[in-house]
Amino acid sequence: MKIIDILKQDKMSLSFEVFPPKKETSFENVKAATEAIAKLNPAFMSVTYGAGGGVSQYTLEIAKNLKYNFNIPMLAHLTCISSTKETIHQRIEDMKAAGIKNVMALRGDLTPELIANGRGDCDYHHAVELIRELKAADADFCIGAACYPEKHPESPNQAEDIKHLKEKVEAGADFLTTQMVFDNNLFFSFLYKLRDAGVNCPVLPGIMPITNANQVERAIKLSGSFMPQHFKSLVDKFGSDPEAMKQAGIIYATDQIIDLYANGITNVHVYSMNKPDVAEGILKNVSAILGKNFAG
Ligand code: FAD
């Protein structure tokens, strides 16, 4: 099933993101975790793609397993910045052969080498080039792209970032998923700016449940996202008690999701980070509140 068709349904939906293993040895553990999340029957799942290659083949392997053995609509991520045209064309063919119809088209983060040496001889510079290639390879691909409510860190300002975002939608992105947001107001003001700029496709807020204190610094470093004081207070109070912090993180994420639904957002994407217990906690809370208005 195409993700865009799920996003257009009347019912509210929740989707979960998982990531492939960093080492071959941990593949079975990751596979088991992603299967446990699939058994919760979310609206769809996405699998990230390691920008540096190496274990990237697992993205497709995990996506295929969940699609064919658990009947979950799957979104496979693909990055282009460190890849040659030849590699990308091969990856696109692999996806077509695997029957994967939904692709999250990304540039990927710049490696230290690319930052030091510049990107002059790279085959790809921006995600928009990958979107064009995906569309050219198969017009039937349903394509997602990334967006940044607090602007992408490399952008000089938000207006410039939104200008390039619009180019991605015009090139064929069917929907957008945001960088993690911890303050819903930032998401809503971003959404108004997108609509004002003529970007009218579905935009999924990305919610990252922070369930242990060590995640906080990493999440901020990775995303640059603003963390509200009332969330920092939770970490201060419960960060040294793992079980309490896990529950506090689940409740904070649930509260964000319910507030989004209450204010007209119908689809939310959760960075579930291969944690079935966290995904289950959020899903149970959300379905208890939404009941029959909830599609999973
Ligand atoms: P782009 O859209 O290319 O944008 C990058 C920067 O370039 C922005 O500042 C933009 O304004 C600017 N820009 C865009 N087009 C142009 C242009 N034509 N001319 C000049 N400037 C331009 N990384 C992974 O490695 N694997 C993943 O699976 C992954 N999944 C992600 C999922 C989501 C929802 C998000 C939000 C991010 C994800 N990332 C992933 C991280 C992502 O790769 C980085 O944030 C990366 O730095 C930017 O990727 P992008 O696709 O947004 O790039």
UniProtKB/TrEMBL annotation:
Cofactor(s) this protein cannot do without: FAD
Top-level class of the enzyme under EC nomenclature: oxidoreductase
Pathway stated in the Swiss-Prot or TrEMBL entry: One-carbon metabolism; tetrahydrofolate interconversion; Amino-acid biosynthesis; L-methionine biosynthesis via de novo pathway
Xref: SUPFAM superfamilies: FAD-linked oxidoreductase
Enzyme Commission code: 1.5.1.54
GO MF: FAD binding; methylenetetrahydrofolate reductase (NADH) activity
UniProt GO BP: methionine biosynthetic process; tetrahydrofolate interconversion
Pfam families: MTHFR
Catalytic activity: (6S)-5-methyl-5,6,7,8-tetrahydrofolate + NAD(+) = (6R)-5,10-methylene-5,6,7,8-tetrahydrofolate + NADH + H(+)
A GO CC annotation given for this chain: cytosol
Alphabetized UniProt keyword annotations: Amino-acid biosynthesis, FAD, Flavoprotein, Methionine biosynthesis, NAD, Oxidoreductase
TM regions (residue ranges): none
Record-stated family: Belongs to the methylenetetrahydrofolate reductase family.
Protein name: Methylenetetrahydrofolate reductase
